[in-house]
Amino acid sequence: MTARSAQHDTFTISRHYAATPARVFQAFADPSAKAKWFGSPDPAARKEDVSFDFREGGRETTTTIAPDGTRYGFAATYTDIVPVERLVYTYEMSLNGARISVSVVTVEFRPAAGGTDFSITEQGVYLDGLDNADQRRGGTELLMDALGKSLTD
């Protein structure tokens, strides 16, 4: 039998992007723009089961398959969308079909000199030792770096 556990953690990552809040928001709201930065940093990984319904109550899903066959699932529901200001969504991650975490995320976009002050706060529960807060924070840092790069392309 699997040992059951739940580890809770909250972290915030802040960035300044040299792009308008509207452009940074669009990187989340537009599926083509989001595809440029959201996902595995491994170019050999592939995606399937992709859906994108960006509206309150809408769902976004993706399964990423690593070159070794490992399957990472992402399933989000958008709870609050204030265009160009705030997003709140919940999401769960799975590893080869087993749920490994559930999180609530708040994304904030603030106009600032030269662009946008951006923050993302994640309140997560990491399940059964299959994921942890340090790994999630590291992965989110990589995504925010990729977001920043996509805004300069």
From TrEMBL:
Transmembrane feature ranges: none
Ranges of residues in domain Activator of Hsp90 ATPase homologue 1/2-like C-terminal: 19-148
Signal sequence region: none
Pfam families: AHSA1 (PF08327)
Family that this chain belongs to: Belongs to the AHA1 family.
Name assigned to this protein: SRPBCC family protein
Organism, scientific name: Paractinoplanes pyxinae
